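Structure in, sequence out. Go:
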């Protein structure tokens, strides 16, 4: 009777707990009340173990419920809150320990749902648990160790909640291994939700700041958004370096996702601007070092202005820096005019962006007023007038005041150069229609253009010009600002060119007389470059102080032959700009560029290479060659299959060498692979790669370039993209990545080009074949992996769909969207599709002999793995039949690799199913037609069988039967039936049969090994590697 009463009491307790849980899962509003009821029930229960037993049994069905419905989530939240709640009336700490041990047991279960629910509840409890909870250290150690194991669970949901549970312990220095575990898993994690949880769980420190910022480039939008959320909540503005601040804003404000950009803007507005800078944009700019990161500062100001977060204080303007002599500060009177107060760099950028914003707003409102009528037009006109009035209050009152302000900063020295350039850009907002203003500004420009470049003397007594050595003033941005102001002041047609040429005529006098020094040459040529870059046509240069022909003969060509390398470099840059303005490039100019390209130092060759590529793309390669050799044939050399080799060691430059041959030959010059000292991202190979990528993208504009050369160019670009030398050329890598993204989508002929380039690329990259060098086993392995990576990359380019040929659609707001993509594989001819690539690979594989070296075997194996990934369309019956003929010979080439043979057999079965007429005779004319379209010369034996060869028998490992097992089987058989036929067979006969089978299997294995022995071309170590693992490239797909 006592046991029955206890059971009834337990059942009643379980029913009451179940009732409370059912009520709690209905709504979150009942949780507080139900928590009190359940706590009261626990306190009234005579034994805690009795209550926990009933509680755990009632909760067990939750661990089998797979779907994440709201009912289950509310139950989890209620149970977690109950376990984490502190109740002095009951032994809540002991209950928590019991419950945690119960959850740890479930977390180690083989059931994925049980592990998921256990980790979910544990994470909720840990986050809700107050700091004064009394739980033994042993329990916490068990929880931490269990969650560490679950972080590597195969179920993403389990990993997510395990990381969430450990996040509270990651801040503890005693648990530094948790932080190391998070950082390790973040680099390996494939699931976006898990990566997001890791980012949210990382504590703020110098070790995690860079990791979190790197996550702003994650492919997942949620991870990027979480990264900005963590940066806003955990990292104060002062704790981040200037570089990290600018990287965060540069990436976030320009993110392609609206949600991510909004999160970054929230960080900028709520945290950095409001919390740390008291809403003052000027203070925020001081945290960003606008002199170094000008574009970031400008983006921040534009964002704040669009959000109407820039509030101009009363009386704040540029005019406050222009005071009377008595108001000047003593500290500034030493360096500038007493009436001018020098402007800080942050303030100069601030006022320039504010004035630009006001001017654009006034222009937009004025346009709206002109496009509307009535009251609406009056409102727009009033708003435009208010913007213009505010702009006038901010800008200096007169042009003379503006000029004095700029002159004061110029005279203050190079330390104020950034501010001076910002002020020069403000000049575009003034009205120079008045003759007096134009005269004052013109006199200031004369002074500015006559100013020689800044220079200094080094320790050896040599004069060194400060700056990039190419642009006027030593800086491209400075030259652009001066040119904008000059064209604004001298806005009439040809007036700008007339003024600048008059100054060049004056500066060119000592250069003509050969009495000019290095600095004078640089000053004159930099001003010529400013003119050529800003001029729209050569006709604006004619009839002025110095004619274009005289400019070329007396300054540019002599400058390209000057003894000083800096003079040569800027002269070659000017020659390229001069050629772009000519209707037809002059022969002397082209010859000098070719000489500088071949014989000049690396920095000179880079500039000459840029000039030749620009002239070739602007005028056309054939027109450039015709200017060098007028009697050249006008016909397109469509039969040209490769570029002519160029010997760069010849002392004389042969004009018969075509421009494209000369440029492409630069790839073979290994001395040009390294970057120049002036710019880490510039070398001849990088310039050539970028130029030829543009030529391929715009190949329709250059019919003089034979289409047969396109695969050759593409092969070189792919090889360059995957080569080691391009690792340090970030600009080239970015350029080629964009090129490879768009090139296969633009035209079907581009896919044909990729198909033709596939085999040459892999041949050139695979070590140990066709004369390619090998090396150590590690180097050979790395080279093979790189080649396999390239093959998969080209396969992806073949499989991407084409862009729609129609014009780009416009959205409702008028912005053009990305070109739409359609799956147009059915429209492609077979030579442009995967069928053509498959046939090229198949013919390449069958061209190898039966006896292959280790390098050849690995090469053939890699090709076959790509072949197994290609698909054939039902409409291409001819290529299907041809591939069925070739597959048998392909399987014979890789017969020793069982997995690869299985894939090829599956491919053969699929081709047999889609072959509509498998018994129809395949004629030689059909074969010749297919091979002719592929431009391949191959002899196919049509008399051979289409059936796949049988897979050679591979010896199975000997089955080892233990003596104990044999003895037990013999005893059991004797006990069961001594008169059975099996029992009368002697044991020696059975052993003899097993032994004879094992001998036959061993003989088969030995014969297969003897027949598979091959000679090695690279070295014996490589052959050993191949024998140990013939599937050398199977793991490379994950690279």
């Amino acid at each position: 009777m006592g046991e029955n009463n206890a059971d009834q009491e337990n059942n009643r307790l379980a029913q009451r707990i179940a009732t409370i849980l059912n009520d709690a899962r209905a709504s979150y509003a009942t949780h507080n009340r139900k928590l009190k009821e359940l706590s009261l029930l626990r306190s009234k229960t005579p034994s805690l173990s009795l209550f926990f037993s009933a509680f755990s049994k009632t909760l067990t069905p939750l661990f089998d419920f797979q779907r994440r419905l709201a009912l289950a989530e509310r139950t989890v939240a209620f149970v977690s809150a109950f376990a984490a709640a502190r109740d002095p009336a009951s032994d809540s700490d002991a209950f928590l320990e019991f419950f945690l041990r119960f959850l740890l047991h479930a977390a180690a279960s083989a059931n994925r749902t049980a592990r998921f629910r256990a980790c979910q509840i544990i994470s909720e409890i840990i986050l809700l648990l107050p700091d004064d909870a009394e739980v033994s250290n042993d329990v916490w150690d068990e929880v931490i160790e269990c969650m560490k194991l679950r972080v590597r669970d195969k179920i993403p949901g389990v990993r997510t909640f395990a990381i969430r549970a450990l996040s509270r312990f990651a801040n503890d220095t005693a648990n530094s291994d948790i932080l190391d575990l998070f950082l390790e898993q973040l680099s390996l994690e494939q699931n976006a939700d898990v990566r997001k949880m890791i980012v949210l769980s990382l504590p703020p420190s110098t070790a995690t700041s860079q990791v979190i910022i790197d996550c702003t480039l994650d492919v997942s939008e949620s991870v990027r958004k979480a990264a900005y959320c963590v940066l806003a909540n955990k990292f104060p503005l002062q704790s981040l370096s200037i570089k990290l601040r600018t990287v965060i804003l540069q990436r976030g404000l320009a993110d392609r996702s609206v949600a991510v950009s909004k999160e970054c803007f929230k960080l900028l507005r709520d945290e950095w601007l409001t919390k740390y800078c008291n809403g003052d944009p000027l203070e925020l700019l001081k945290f960003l070092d606008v002199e170094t990161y000008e574009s970031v500062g400008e983006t921040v100001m534009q964002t704040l202005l669009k959000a109407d977060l820039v509030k101009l204080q009363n009386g704040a303007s540029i005019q406050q820096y222009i005071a009377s002599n008595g108001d000047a500060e003593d500290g500034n009177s030493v360096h500038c005019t007493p009436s001018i107060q020098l402007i800080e760099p942050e303030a100069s950028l601030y006022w320039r962006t504010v004035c630009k914003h006001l001017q654009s707003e006034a222009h937009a409102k004025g346009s709206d007023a002109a496009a509307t009528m009535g009251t609406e037009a009056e409102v727009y006109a009033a708003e435009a007038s208010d913007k213009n009035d505010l702009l006038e209050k901010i800008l200096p009152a007169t042009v003379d005041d503006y000029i004095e302000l700029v002159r004061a900063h110029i005279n203050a020295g190079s330390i104020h150069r950034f501010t001076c350039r910002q002020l020069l850009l403000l000049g575009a907002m003034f009205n120079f229609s008045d003759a007096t203003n134009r005269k004052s500004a013109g006199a200031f420009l004369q002074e500015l253009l006559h100013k020689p470049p800044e220079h200094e003397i080094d320790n050896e007594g040599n004069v060194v010009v400060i700056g990039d050595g190419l642009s006027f003033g030593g800086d491209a941005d400075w030259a652009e600002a001066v040119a904008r102001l000059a064209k604004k002041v001298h806005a009439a047609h040809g007036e700008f060119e007339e003024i600048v040429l008059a100054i060049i005529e004056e500066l060119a006098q000592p250069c003509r007389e050969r009495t000019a020094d290095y600095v004078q040459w640089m000053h004159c040529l930099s001003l010529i470059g400013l003119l050529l870059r800003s001029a729209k046509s050569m006709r604006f240069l004619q009839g002025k102080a110095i004619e274009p022909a005289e400019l070329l003969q007396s300054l540019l060509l002599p400058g390209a032959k000057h003894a000083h390398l800096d003079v040569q470099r800027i002269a070659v840059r000017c020659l390229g700009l001069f050629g772009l303005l000519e209707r037809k490039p002059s022969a002397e100019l082209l010859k000098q560029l070719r000489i500088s390209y071949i014989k000049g130092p690396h920095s000179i060759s880079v500039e000459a290479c840029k000039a030749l590529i620009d002239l070739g793309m602007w005028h056309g390669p054939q027109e450039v060659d015709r200017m060098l050799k007028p009697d050249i044939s006008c016909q397109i050399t469509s039969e040209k299959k490769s570029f002519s080799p160029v010997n760069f060691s010849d002392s004389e430059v042969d004009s018969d060498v075509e421009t494209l041959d000369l440029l492409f030959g630069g790839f073979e010059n290994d001395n040009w692979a390294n970057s120049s000292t002036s710019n880490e991202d510039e070398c001849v190979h990088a310039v050539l790669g970028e130029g030829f990528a543009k030529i391929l993208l715009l190949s329709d504009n250059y019919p003089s370039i034979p289409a047969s050369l396109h695969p050759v160019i593409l092969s070189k670009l792919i090889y360059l993209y995957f080569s080691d030398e391009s690792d340090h050329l970030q600009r080239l890598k970015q350029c080629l990545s964009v090129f490879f993204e768009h090139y296969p989508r633009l035209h079907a002929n581009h896919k044909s080009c990729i198909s033709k380039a596939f085999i040459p690329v892999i041949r050139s990259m695979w070590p140990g074949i066709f004369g390619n060098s090998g090396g150590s086993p590690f180097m050979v392995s790395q080279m093979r992996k790189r080649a396999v990576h390239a093959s998969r990359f080209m396969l992806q380019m073949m499989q991407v769909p084409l862009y729609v040929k129609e014009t780009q659609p416009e959205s409702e707001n008028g912005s053009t969207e990305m070109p739409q993509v359609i799956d147009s594989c059915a429209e492609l001819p077979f030579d442009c599709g995967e069928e053509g690539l498959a046939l090229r690979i198949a013919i390449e594989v069958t061209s190898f002999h039966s006896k292959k070296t280790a390098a050849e075997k690995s090469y053939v194996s890699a090709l076959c793995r790509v072949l197994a990934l290609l698909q054939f369309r039902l409409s291409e019956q001819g290529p299907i039949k041809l591939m069925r003929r070739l597959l048998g010979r392909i399987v014979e080439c890789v017969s020793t690799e069982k997995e690869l043979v299985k894939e090829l057999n599956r491919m053969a079965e699929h081709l047999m199913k889609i072959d509509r007429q498998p018994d129809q005779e395949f004629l030689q004319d059909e074969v010749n037609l297919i091979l002719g379209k592929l431009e391949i010369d191959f002899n196919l034996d049509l008399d051979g069988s289409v059936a796949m060869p049988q897979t050679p028998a591979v010896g199975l490992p000997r089955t080892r039967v233990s003596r104990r097992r044999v003895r037990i089987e013999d005893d059991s058989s004797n006990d069961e039936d001594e008169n059975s036929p099996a029992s009368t067979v002697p044991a020696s006969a059975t052993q003899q049969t097993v032994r004879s089978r094992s001998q036959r299997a061993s003989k088969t294995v030995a014969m297969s090994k003897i027949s598979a022995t091959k000679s090695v071309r690279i070295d014996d170590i490589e052959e050993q590697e191949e024998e140990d693992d013939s599937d050398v490239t199977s793991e490379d797909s994950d690279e």
